[in-house]
Write a structure and sequence with these properties.
Helix content: 25-40%
Shape: elongated
Order of helices and strands: HHHEEEEEHEHEHEHEHHEHEHEH
Largest sheet: 10 strands, mixed
Number of helices: 12
Number of strands: 12
C-alpha cells in the first residue's frame, strides 16, 4: 500500500464555523430571501409588493437576469429593483465543454475575486448540475484538487443558487445535445464541504425546491448533498424534514487509511460516520449513497472491498465507485479496470448495490478544483 502522510491538524468542522479570515460576503440577492423577504425589500423601495413576485418569476421561472428584458416592470423601476435584489454574483471566467457538448464546466469569479466551479451534465433522460458550496475547501483530503487549495470562504445562499439558475438557463437554451431542455437534478458535489456551510446550503436547497416563483421547482428527491462525514451536521440534516439524498464520501472502510485520506476521520471515526448515515436513512427513508474514489494501490485491495461489504450489508445504501480523476502532477492515479471490476464483484457478492460512476470531463480539468487551479496557475 502506498504510504500517505498523516495530517495532524484537523480543520474546524463545527456546523456554522467560519473561515479563519473575515469572509467578504456578496451583496444581498433575491435568492438569499424567501418570497415574503423579497416583498419586504420591494416595499422599502416604495414599490407594490407584487413586484417581488414579478422579479422572482423572471429569475426562477424564465431564467432571466437582465433587467432590460423584464418588460412587464416599469422602466423607471427596473434599475432600482435590480440594484436591490439582482446584483451580479457570478462573472464568467472560462467555459469548457467535452463529451460532444454534453458536459460543460464553468469557472466563475465572485465579487471578491474568489474562484468557484460548476458543471452541467446532460443525459438522455435528465440534466444534472454539480454546484459548489464554498470557495475552496478546508477538509484537506490529499487526493482532491480543491482540498489542496484550502478554504477561502463560504458561499452565500444566492451564490450557490445562482450557479444552478445559470446552468438551468444553459439547459433551456438547448445547448446539451440529446438531453431534455430542463435542469432536473442538482448535486452539491462541487467545491467545498456542503455541511460546513450548513445554514446557507439548507436555504439554497429550499430555494431550489420551492415551486416557482419562490424557487426553481426541483424535486427534493433530485437533490444530493455530499459530505466527508461531519457527524453533528448529518444528524441535524436528518431532522430538517427534507427528502434529499445524502452522499457520504467514505473512500476507505478502515480508520487507519481513512484518517489519512479524509482527515476529518481523526475526529469522527468510520463507525460514528456510518451510524449518522443510518440515522439519516431511518429518519427519511432515503437510501444513502456511499462515495468511494478508487485509488490505485491505496484503497482498492480485495480485503477492503470485503470489509466495506460487511459494513454495508443489509443497510439502505448504495455504493458509487468513482474512478479517480488525477490532478496534474499528482502521485494519485485511478485503479486499473480489472481491480475495479473485482472490487465491484465482491461488494455485489455481499449483497451491496454498487455502480461505477460515469467518467465525465477528464479532458476539461473535470475533477473538482482542477479548472480553478489551472486558472490560477495560468
Amino acid at each position: 500500500m502506498t504510504s500517505l502522510p498523516v495530517i495532524q491538524t484537523v480543520p474546524d468542522t463545527r456546523v456554522g464555523s467560519a473561515p479563519s479570515r473575515r469572509a467578504a460576503m456578496p451583496p444581498r440577492h433575491l435568492a438569499d430571501l424567501d418570497l415574503p423577504g423579497r416583498q419586504a425589500v420591494v416595499a422599502e423601495l416604495g414599490e407594490p409588493a407584487f413586484r417581488a413576485r414579478q422579479l422572482s418569476a423572471h429569475y426562477f421561472g424564465r431564467l432571466v437576469r437582465d433587467p432590460a428584458r423584464m418588460t412587464d416592470l416599469p422602466a423607471a423601476s427596473r434599475g432600482r429593483l435590480a440594484d436591490a435584489l439582482l446584483p451580479e454574483l457570478l462573472t464568467p471566467v472560462r467555459d469548457v465543454a467535452c463529451d460532444g457538448g454534453a458536459t460543460r464546466k464553468s469557472l466563475w469569479r465572485l465579487h471578491d475575486g474568489s474562484l468557484v466551479e460548476s458543471v452541467l451534465m446532460g443525459y438522455r433522460d435528465r440534466v444534472t448540475a454539480c454546484i459548489s458550496s464554498q470557495a475552496g475547501c478546508g477538509m484537506a483530503c490529499p487526493f482532491c484538487a480543491t482540498g489542496q487549495a484550502g478554504l477561502t470562504r463560504n458561499l452565500s445562499t444566492a451564490e450557490i443558487v445562482d450557479q444552478a439558475v445559470h446552468l438551468a438557463g444553459v439547459a433551456a437554451s438547448g445547448a446539451l445535445p440529446g438531453s431534455p431542455p430542463r435542469l432536473s437534478h442538482v448535486v452539491f458535489m462541487g467545491m467545498g464541504e456542503p455541511l460546513a456551510n450548513y445554514a446557507r446550503v439548507i436555504a439554497a436547497v429550499r430555494r431550489l425546491t420551492a415551486p416557482a416563483p419562490e424557487g426553481l421547482g426541483l424535486s427534493q428527491r433530485h437533490v444530493t448533498i455530499s459530505t466527508v462525514g461531519l457527524v453533528p451536521a448529518m444528524r441535524r440534516l436528518a431532522e430538517e424534514g427534507l427528502s434529499v439524498t445524502l452522499a457520504l464520501s467514505l473512500h476507505a472502510p478502515d480508520d487507519e487509511l481513512r484518517d489519512e485520506l479524509v482527515p476529518v476521520n481523526q475526529r469522527w471515526k468510520v463507525t460514528e460516520v456510518l451510524d449518522a448515515a443510518w440515522h439519516y436513512a431511518e429518519c427519511t427513508g432515503r437510501r444513502v449513497s456511499i462515495e468511494y474514489a478508487m485509488i490505485r494501490d491505496v484503497n482498492d485491495q480485495p480485503w477492503r472491498a470485503d470489509l466495506l461489504g460487511r459494513l454495508l450489508a443489509g443497510r439502505l445504501a448504495h455504493v458509487n465507485l468513482i474512478p479517480l480523476n488525477p490532478t496534474p502532477g499528482s502521485r494519485w492515479d485511478a485503479s486499473p479496470k480489472p481491480v475495479e471490476r473485482e472490487f465491484v464483484r465482491r461488494l455485489r457478492a455481499a449483497g451491496v448495490s454498487t455502480t461505477v460512476r460515469d467518467t465525465r470531463g477528464r479532458e476539461i480539468d473535470g475533477a473538482c478544483g482542477q479548472l480553478a487551479a489551472s486558472a490560477v496557475a495560468g
